[in-house]
Each structure stands twice: as C-alpha cells, then as structure tokens.
Prior knowledge:
The chain has helices spanning 5-13, 24-27, 46-49, 52-57, 59-75, 80-88, 105-109, 166-178, 196-203, 230-245; strands at 16-21, 94-99, 114-116, 119-126, 153-157, 181-185, 207-212, 224-227. By secondary structure, the chain is α/β, with parallel strands linked by helices. The protein has 2 domains: 5-30 and 78-118 and 164-245, Rossmann fold (3-Layer(aba) Sandwich), CATH 3.40.50.1220; 39-75 and 124-157, 2-Layer Sandwich (SIR2/SIRT2 'Small Domain'). A 6-stranded parallel β-sheet has the order 3-2-1-6-7-8, sandwiched between helices. The longest helix has 17 residues, at 59-75. The protein is elongated, with a radius of gyration of 18 Å. It binds ligand BJW and zinc ion.
Amino acid sequence: MQFSENLIxxxxxxxxxxxxxxAGVSAESGVPTFRDPGGIWEKFRPEELANFNAFISxxxxxxxxxxxxxEIMREVTPNHGHLALAEMESLFNEFNLITQxxxxxxxxxxxxxxxxxxGNIERNYCLKCRTFYNDIDVSEKxxxxxxxxxxxxxxxxxxxxEMLPEKALSHAENCAKRSDLFFSIGxxxxxxPAALLPLIAKRSGAYVVEINIKPTVMSMDLDEVLTGKSGExxxxxxxxxxxxxx
Length: 246
Ligand code: BJW
Ligand code: ZN
C-alpha cells in the first residue's frame, strides 16, 4: 500500500495523534462486529439486547448473551492492528487511544493510554449496591446475584440511552480537539456520541484518516480513506511511521 504525500507529511510533523477504534479492529482476532453480515446484530436488533429495559425484562437472556461474548473474548488474542497501535504510542509526543470496544484487547496488546467510551466486559456491578464483580465464572448462564444484597449484576458497559462515562467522554473530546492527526479505525461511525469525535477533530484542524474494509457514513467528510483490513494496514502504517520518525 502506498501512503499519500499528505499523510506522510502529517506523520512527519504530527505532535499529537488520536485514534478512535471500533469493533472492526477486533474482527481479525475473531470477535464478531455489530453491524456486518455475521455480526452480533444479525440475529437481534441492538435495542433488543443492549439496553437497560431489555436487561430488566429478561436478565438471564441478556446476561447469557454477554457470557457467550465473554467466552469468545477470553479465547481470542490481540491481532496485528492492536499490536501496531500499542507500538505507535511511543513514536509520537502524545498518542491517545480512544476505543468503543469493551473486549480489553488493546490493553492486552500493551497499549497504556486507553480511554474506554463504552465500558469493559470484564467489569460487572450490582445494580442495587454497586459492588463490583470482575472475576466471574463464564459458564454460568443465569444472571448473577450480589452476595451482599441479592441485587442483580450487570456488565459495566454502556447501553443505548445511557450516558457515556463523563470523564472518558470529555477526555476523548479534548483529545480530538487537540490532535493534529486523527485515525477512525474499524467503526461504522453510526453510534453517537463516539461518531462525533472524527468530526470534532476535523473541525479543529486535524487531518482525519479512516481505516475500514468498506466506506462508512462518514467517509465523505474525512480527509483520507484507507480501504482494507485494519490489522494489515496498521502494520504497514507502523513500519512507515518508524521509517519516517526514527
Ligand atoms: C473492519 C474490519 C477489519 C469490519 N478492518 N474494518 C445523535 C443522533 C442520533 C442518535 C443519537 C445521538 N446521540 C445519541 C443517540 C442515541 C444513541 C445512538 O447513537 N443511536 C444511533 C444508533 C442512531 N446513542 C446512545 O444512546 C449513547 N448514549 C447517549 O448518547 O447518552 C446520552 C443520551 C441519552 C438518552 C437520550 C439521548 C442521549 C450510548 C451508546 C452506547 C452504545 N453501546 C454499544 C453496546 C456496548 C456494550 C456491548 O458491546 O454490548 O456499543 S452498541 C455497539 O455499537 C457498541 C459499539 O461500541 C458501538 C459502535 O459499533 P462499532 O464499533 O462501530 O461496530 P460496527 O459493527 O457498527 O462497525 C464495524 C465496522 O468495522 C464496520 O464499518 C466494518 O466495515 C468495519 N470492519 N472488519 C477494518 N478487519
Ligand atoms: Zn449488591
């Protein structure tokens, strides 16, 4: 893959780089995405599962879905994309990784400066007393009850209609505003407010690059689109960055 002259110039001069990742970044590890064929939403509409009312009306069903995903996520390993992003962190003065993913693969790949916008599937808490339960048995298909108060335990993720963690969101917005180079990788850019981040970066003067296997609703508004698998492109990009900046 040939990178454009514009992108090469930006890589040379960039002081502050921000990256927004979505489910596509973990696809090459074997984690299903949400909105692609074969994705998580193919059998269920998002509102059937990823919202509080669905959980309250059938906690075992929604919990079972998260347990199934936990099983997948525990078996998979970070791919070249996660590893390349972890290595990029030290190649720029400031590098912020903002993720919508709840699968913990960026952390497992070695990234340090991670902002999680939609929570993390490895954390769970009691709805009643807020006690956290992070080391749970993935084979238990029925929803867990709190040992202290008997309340039901939910995953610490952000469902539709729920606010994103305030600090994480404001940090992400700040990163977008301050970055001079911004990458939007493996996300359909359909879920707000995360989808606003590339646009905030663009409006604030950043050069915004999308990496995706296919065009998204946002592609036309960005500076450059790199089409292909994020694992492959990020590996090539890392080599280019090392060549230019080392
Ligand atoms: C590859 C690849 C490879 C594949 N290489 N690429 C403004 C306008 C309209 C609506 C709203 C708005 N503001 C808020 C809303 C409502 C709502 C929303 O956005 N709705 C839209 C769907 C219309 N947002 C919310 O409710 C948010 N809360 C909120 O705004 O609070 C304030 C508020 C409250 C009440 C009323 C109003 C405001 C919360 C959103 C929470 C999202 N939660 C989920 C579930 C998390 C837990 C879990 O995992 O179970 O987060 S939904 C799901 O979507 C998950 C993801 O993080 C998120 C984004 O998905 P992502 O990552 O983009 O995945 P896909 O599958 O969509 O795309 C994958 C991409 O990868 C594709 O493009 C592929 O092509 C690509 N790809 N393989 C590179 N190898
Ligand atoms: Zn409790």
